[in-house]
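Checklist before submission:
- one chain only
- standard amino acids only
- sequence pasted in full

Submission:
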Amino acid sequence: MSATTPRPDDLTRAAARPAQPLRAQRAVLRHLRRAPVWAAWLALGLLIGGVAAREARTSALQARLLAGLNERLHFAVAPGPSTRFVPPRHGPYDIRLGYVQLPEWVARLGREGFAVREQAQLSPTLARIAALGVTPPYDEKTRAGFGVLDRSGAAVFQVTEPAEGYAHFDAIPALVRETLLFVENRELLHEEPRRNPAIEWDRFARAALLQLGGGDADGRGPGGSTLATQMDKYRHSPGGRTTGPAEKLRQISSASLRAYRDGEDTRAARRAILLDYLNSLPLAATAGRGEVLGLAAGLEAWYGARFERTNELLTARVDPRDRAGLAEQADAYREVLSLLLATRRPSDYLRARPSALDELVDRHLRRLAQEGVIPAALRDAALRARPRRTAPPAIVAASSGPAEPVRRWLVGALALPDYYALDRLDLSATSTLDGQLQLQVEQRLAALADPAVVAAAGLRSKGLLENADPARVVYSFALYERVGGTNRLRVLADNFGGALDVNEGVKLDLGSTAKLRALASYLEAIAEIHAKLAGSAPEALAELTAKGPDPLTSFVAETLLAAPGTDLGAMLDAALERRYSANPWTGFFTGGGLHYFHNFDKEDASKILSVRVAFRNSVNLPFVRLMRDVVLYQMARLPGNPAAMLSDRNDPRRAVWLRRAQEEEARTFLARFHRAHAGKSPTESLDAWTLRAHPTPKRLAVAWRSVFSEGSFEEFAAALRTLPAGAPLGEPDLRAMYGKYGRERFSLADRAFLARIHPLELWLMEWQSAHPGRTLDEAWAASGDARDIAYTWLFQTRNRGVQDRRLRTLLERDAFVRIHRQWQALGYPFETLAPSYATAIGSSGDRPSALAELMGIIAADGRRLPTVRVTELRFGAGTPYETVLAPASEAAEQVLRPEVARVLQSALLDVVASGTARRANGAFALPLGGKTGTGDHQKKRVDRWANVIESEYVSRTATFVFFAGDRFHGVVTAHVAGPESAEYTFTSSLPVQVLRNLAPLLEPVFGAAPEDTTTVARR
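Returned file contents:
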């Protein structure tokens, strides 16, 4: 053996001794009967000691018992939820891989439409010991991570942690093996075939004695844990620590069971323990990359060393005279040794006290040479070496590519903090995405940041990008295919490059795409009225024609009266031919005030257009008027027809509804005032109002005497003299005002009138002076009388016009609640809908993904199908925690009448054939229909005459939502955020042209045969 080659562990060889013959023990038993009592007890003690010593050397009894027990410890994956499934309760390994959280995630995914298709079924004995906290014996994964497959089964994303490691036992350099054995577990590779690797009795006793004596120089001592129990500890113990004797016993029990999983001979298991330990030892977490696991990752993270090169150096035979070679080998050895020792206190040694780790390494180098594990030359070179610790390099985030939609969804569905947590789960997902097409679309969208590509794609003309910077435009594209009873996501791509999901994660002003939702509501209303009136007597129809509760009911009655027997299809076609004015100069009372709207093209102002033409050309004012008719129809359908009280001032319901208006308005104002005055002293509150209202001396006097009713004249005079207009006031004037405006001399309403302040704000300042620090709810509970006083005027008959405006606002709001429910059934994604006719032209916002869902409903003849992006989720494959989730079957829901959906399809085809999306006409072999929309989001300040005095640009968005043939639908969006959006004038022609440019990529998919499968999962 050369001077640089490590020698075998002498202690390991010396420990292998032959067992004593059993006949000697039998002879002792034969003589026990003839011996005195004390001698018999002594002999029995010696016999037991001998048996124990033999068991300590051979583990023969443990081997037989534990190997036999393992025969009853098994599991298998079976269909449906398992009746014997015991997830672990704690442990860093089990948490990182997701085993602990499985019950919670199964419940969460159940709310997403998934159900357990298969799950590991534990044998009864295994279930019982697992319930006791013992880790089931199975082939634990040293390397694991998250992966995604596309629709074809091709891997499109895979993260494995740790990324590198020893592939097998023989790949470990002998120097590394012998060093680890000497430092941590000298008898692990003992020649005895049945040896239990979970415990070394002599090491355990020595560690106990050292602990009683205070430990070795590093304050810790070698410890009694073997590599097997250490792995169980840092994998499965709470926090990776031994919390007490019971936990230590659990570690030993788990490690012992695992060692005999394949029978009584543990030699292969012990080699696997050493291999797995090196590949998984915990080496603290670093900023920018997270936890560091395994020797390979530790070398890179803490020393910037390449794992492959380190192994080459430690395997090489170096001549002691080769100082450069020996120094290089010594550096590598010292790095490895330091990491093996750092596992005792990883964060302390590697981050907080690296100098203490250097001292510990030096001591062990001397011991290793003294025991013959390493040659003296290597010891001396390693003692001189001081490898430079590098700043741990940050992990470069794995590129999601085609898997990004799946990763983003799973982070939300599992309530994970980030992608880092997801990528370390033992999980694989099979998606519906077309990986190749996804990648091609992403590359095409990314290329649109290049001005040369933009010009070649024909995106520089009017209504497109013209001279604007193309690099600031964010494009997104989604494509779905209807397969069986589901809509499967094929592509969800963008060129944003960040965490923002333009398709699904933001609320955008998508402009005229809202006309599609408004048109659906309009046609559904026509269909409902037709179902109700078809077959009615001519007299009843004539009365509704003349005095119908709303314009839509009158129209249907008139049509049926003129052409009895008109079927629903013909009625809907007639509804598309109804004509509305595009006049923008008429004001509309909606949303609680008077509003004016404008058309995109000023030439439309004098036109009267049919609904069909207005939809085709996306003209705003006809749709504002159409939405008004829909609102009036929904108002007439409110329970009890409360709209009738608008024409009857004696209707007793007016008082009830006015009380509701009072309470809602009062709540709004009181909340605003509470925010303004919360946490302020009475003086600070009054000062804040003074700065805002710039009151006259008289107004301030009234307010001051209300808030400080017990204040002295001197305080009052000082407060009024702070006003610019208050200085000329003499003391007589001030005393007169002090006496005249006392709180007791006027009601709250009068004092508020005199001070020109809202009664509730004045009341709140008064109340808070006596009740500081109270909450809004407490203020509301105390303000009942003040609210009645503040709104007494509302119930006076002379204010009929004001009353009607309040009532009309409430009725409109309730009507929009009904419209909102209908829109939600069609996929509208938000919890509220702005109660304004402007909703018809996009004021309530939308999401591209929600519009795509609406298009899927229309293309499926009014059926809302489950949207699918993942067909299988497999947690913990090959473990006793394996759980496979797939979709629970879900029937399609008919949310639009088929006749309405077909009329909408016809209108959408017309938009592409001759309307705002005609750029896409002829781009595909399949029939193409769609709706465009442009949103120019600005924050504007206006004066009392509605003149814009300030405008702040927020974003500009253009969208085209489409269907192609009877299987495909999707959406294309272009978006620019921030003040830079002022530089862009593109319209919906931009996404239409982008879709046309994507046609060569999409045509092969559109022309392919439909997928034949019934296994689906929801989004």
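Reviewer check: The chain has 41 helices and 21 strands.
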